[in-house]
Amino acid sequence: MSVKELIRFNNFSFRYNSRDDKILEDINLSIKSNEITVLAGPTGCGKSTLLRAIVGLIPNMYEGEYTGDVIVDGIKIRDAEIKEIAKRVGFVFQNPENQIFMFSVERDIAFGLENLGLEQEIIKKRISKIMKTLNITHLAKKAPHELSDGQKQRTALAGVLAMEPKILILDEPTSLLDPKTAMEFMELINKLCKEEGMSIIIVEHRLDLVLKYADKLIVLSEGKVISDDTPENVFDYKKDIIPELSVPFSTKLYRELAKNQMKFTKPVTGVEDMIREVMK
Amino acid sequence: MIKFDNVRYNHPDGTNALDNISLDIPEESITAIVGNNGAGKTTLVKHINGLLKPSTGTVSIKNEDTRNSSVAELSRNVGMVFQNANHQLFADTVKNEILFGLNNFGFNEEFIRERYEFVIELFKLRKYEDISPLKLSGGEKKRVCLASVLAWNPEILILDEPTVGQDELQKTVLLKFINQLHSNKKTVIVISHDIEFLWRLQPNIVTMSDGKIIEIGNSESIFKNQELMEQVGIIPPQIIKIFEGLKIKDEIPLSFEESCKVIKNLRN
């Protein structure tokens, strides 16, 4: 599958009308298909604003001073209709309860598709396909309140994926899931990314859960991009990292040991890497 | 301090959420409740501030049955910070949000001023004082909730997923603060999926699954028990996975510094 640039930020800056200072300043980014990008940074650094700029909530819903360009799958967000953007970008909120509102799982998934004005036949096919992929076919007739948190998360994801977006954005998707369910969810996301060639952006503080799957780690601080590289390169012991970043324990160990002359073949970003390096 | 005696709780639709829970949480302790989604953790803690009353059995705080007190009376002693900040915030400004509890409990002006200043500094909220809490980011909202509850200095503090949306510095502040509460003789109960945070906190741990308590123990014994971890949907902290992977099972170092030493020795 060929890799394609799906999102580009060109010298993008934004200031909300309600604030005096720019929340994002001079952002230049390129995000590709078949890649999982993790977006991290201190609270209030501009992560949510960056996501809003991709899905078109900025400038459509939030007013402010907008300079530069955000281009998503070839369209300029500033001039695009929300409907055009929604076909390309899916957004799963932190709390799936903010997203699921129909009286059954099946109806919830159908909602977005019906809004796109698709034929009933196509809608049915897409619902059945996505429920199979996410392993929720048995939940089709269930009401949202009958679902567990993990099932709710999958239902919210199904509603978004049924629209067949090229880009999927997940805002702290695992924060309400127990660690085992969170790992299963991340395995699923990884599979979708590689098999469907999607571009997936995950906002996450708990890097220990997601780093294993990340092709790229973007770190924002005070409205600027301060790192944009593979997790290995971001965490190389020769580089500084900001103290707000929740560095996984294995990576912290690697950085401390490497600074004290222990030799590593490459930077460590997970438990397995650490064990392999020490066993050498 | 907090005692659950054969507590069962059924939801209004009849489904069972807590099944024969007996639990003693001692005064001045730090206790974490962990378990898979739907295990009954939040339902359990809602019994402590009286938001829920048991279907059968009793819950008592300092030997006082919660059935005999209102939520308002219990709240003076039991502060609870909810998982979802949006369910808690309601005032027009951060300042009024924090002052609400303080004013409501009828403290004197000097105490109110002192506590207000203390929490506004601690949680770095000064610049948001006159802003609506609903306009803040997710992590900032959480800090306002924490500040509002900690302001009135309750004896028992319940934190439901306090680290969600918090960056590393905020987590460190939270960790220090929980330890400080502990040394000030408070009882702290934390519900969390953030195992790496819990490892740093080293609380007593209550594991739950399917409305039942499975096991209670210290952090080390609980997190080293692989079978138990599997049963309650938890993944052990990285420190345990690393040293188990390195075949060091019995003497897993507890701290970062110790870990560095052990690995250096292994390499030499």
Write the layout of secondary structure elements.
The complex is a heterodimer of chains A (280) and B (268).
Chain A (H helix, E strand, L loop, with lengths): L4 E12 L7 E9 L2 E6 L6 H9 L1 H4 L3 E9 L2 E2 L5 H7 E4 L12 H11 L4 H14 L15 H13 L5 E5 L7 H18 L2 E5 L3 H4 L5 E6 L2 E6 L1 H4 L14 H11 L11 H9 L1
Parallel strand pairs in A: 3-8, 3-9, 6-7, 7-8
Antiparallel strand pairs in A: 1-2, 1-4, 4-5, 9-10
Chain B lengths: L1 E9 L5 E10 L4 E6 L5 H6 L9 E6 L2 E2 L5 H7 E4 L12 H11 L4 H14 L15 H14 L4 E5 L7 H16 L3 E5 L3 H7 L2 E6 L2 E7 H6 L1 H6 L6 H8 L10 H12 L1
Parallel strand pairs in B: 3-8, 3-9, 6-7, 7-8
Antiparallel strand pairs in B: 1-2, 1-4, 4-5, 9-10
Helix pairs in contact in B: 3-5, 4-5
Keywords:
heterodimer, A: 280 residues, alpha/beta, Rossmann fold, four-stranded antiparallel beta sheet, B: Rossmann fold, six-stranded mixed beta sheet, 11 helices, 10 strands, 22% strand
* Rg from alpha-carbon coordinates of chain B: 20 Å
- Tell me the CATH architecture of chain B: 3-Layer(aba) Sandwich
As laid out across the biggest beta sheet of chain A, the strand order is 6-7-8-3-9-10
CATH homology superfamily of chain B: P-loop containing nucleotide triphosphate hydrolases
Low-confidence stretches of chain A: none
Secondary-structure element order of chain B, as H and E?
Answer: EEEHEEHEHHHEHEHEEHHHH
What distance separates the N and C termini of chain A? 35 Å
Largest interface here, residues on each chain? A-B, 44 and 46 residues
Care to describe what's here?
The complex is a heterodimer of chains A (280) and B (268). Chain A folds into 2 domains: 5-102 and 164-245, P-loop containing nucleotide triphosphate hydrolases (Rossmann fold); 248-280, no CATH class. In chain A, 37% of the residues lie in helices and 23% in strands. Chain A is built from 11 helices and 10 strands. A 6-stranded mixed sheet of chain A has the order 6-7-8-3-9-10, sandwiched between helices. Chain A has a 4-stranded antiparallel sheet with strand order 2-1-4-5, with helices on one face. In chain A, 48% of the residues are buried. Chain B is built from 11 helices and 10 strands. Chain B is globular. Chain B has a single domain, classed as Rossmann fold, CATH 3.40.50. A 6-stranded mixed sheet of chain B has the order 6-7-8-3-9-10. In chain B, strands 2-1-4-5 form a 4-stranded antiparallel sheet, with no helix packed on it. In chain B, α6 (168-183) links the parallel β7 (156-160) and β8 (187-191). The A-B interface holds A 18, 41-44, 48, 94-95, 148-150, 172, 175-183, 205-206, 208, 243-250, 252-253, 256-257, 260, 262, 271-272, 274-275, 278-279 and B 35-38, 83-84, 135-140, 143, 161, 163-171, 193-196, 230, 232-235, 237-239, 241-242, 245-246, 256, 259-260, 263-264, 266-267.
